[in-house]
Every structure is written in structure tokens, then in C-alpha cells.
Amino acid sequence: MPGARGLIGSRIDQPEVNPQTMAALSGRYGARARDVLEIASHNRALLAPLAPGAFAIGAEVIFAVRYEMARTVSDLLVRRTAMVWRNPIAAMAAAPRVARLMAQELDWPRAREENELAQFRALYSVNMPAPRAISV
């Protein structure tokens, strides 16, 4: 991984990004995590998690499209972030935002965005754990 030392030991002033997300960025991108954060410097909304409970942020979608040739929602949520395996409920919740960001970046027509989202849901909703009741 390029710059495997990543952000460990370096100080980056990103108060909008929680420490778990910063650690995930460092783990996934190494020193290139700074490039992901640079994308968000032009649009602070891209620092927000993709969904509640997600450790990936919107800037990662843009980075993956621009620099890693990500071209499908599944590619982003399965291979680029591994969110499907680490937090499948958050992955399912993040899928619409991922599809929207990819559509904007890749200039997809609305039909392609909807198709990408439908394909992701068809492939991965079967393997999602059943929701658990919360007892109070």
C-alpha cells in the first residue's frame, strides 16, 4: 500500500471526522488518506459518513471513482470499503448515497443510478442479517 504508515503519528486537523473514521481512512489508504481528505476540502459535506454507523465517508466515493476506477455501487461497498462484510446494515443504508455520488461524478442518467442501486440490493440484501428487536 502506498505510504503504509498513513496518518499514524501525523496531525491532521479534521474535527468533523471522528477518530474511528480517521483510523479507517489510514488503514485503507495509507498516506493517500490525505488525498481523500483533500477532496472533502472542496465540499465539507463529503466528510460525513455515508450512513449512520458507516465508517466510510463521501469523499471516499469520489476518490475511488477518480483514482481507483470504481464503477459500480457494489465495487465501492464490497471491495473498496469492505463495508458489506464489516457492517452490512450500514452498507445497505449507504447504498443510495453511494449511487447518488457516483451518478454525479460519472454523469450517469437517473436510470443507471437506479439500476446500480437495485443490483446492489439484489446481490447483498439476501445475505443481510435479520434486524434484531431492541429490548428496553
General description of the model:
By secondary structure, the chain is mostly helical. It has a domain of 78 residues. 56% of the residues lie in helices and 0% in strands. The protein has seven helices and no strands. The protein is globular.
Describe the structure in brief.
This protein has helices at 19-29, 33-40, 58-68, 73-80, 83-86, 88-106, 110-124. It has a domain at 50-127. It starts with 18 loop residues before the first helix and ends in a 12-residue tail after the last helix.
Task: Describe the secondary structure blueprint for this structure.
Elements: H1 19-29, H2 33-40, H3 58-68, H4 73-80, H5 83-86, H6 88-106, H7 110-124
Helix pairs in contact: 2-3, 3-6, 6-7
Helix run count:
7
Mean pLDDT across every amino acid position: 86
Largest sheet: none
Rg over CA atoms, rounded to whole Å, is: 15 Å
Low-pLDDT residue intervals, each spanning 5 or more residues: 3-11
Strand runs, count: 0
Percent range for helical residues? 55-70%
Estimate the strand proportion: under 5%
Structural shape: globular
Structural class label: mainly alpha
Measured distance between first and last alpha carbons: 45 Å
The SSE order reads HHHHHHH
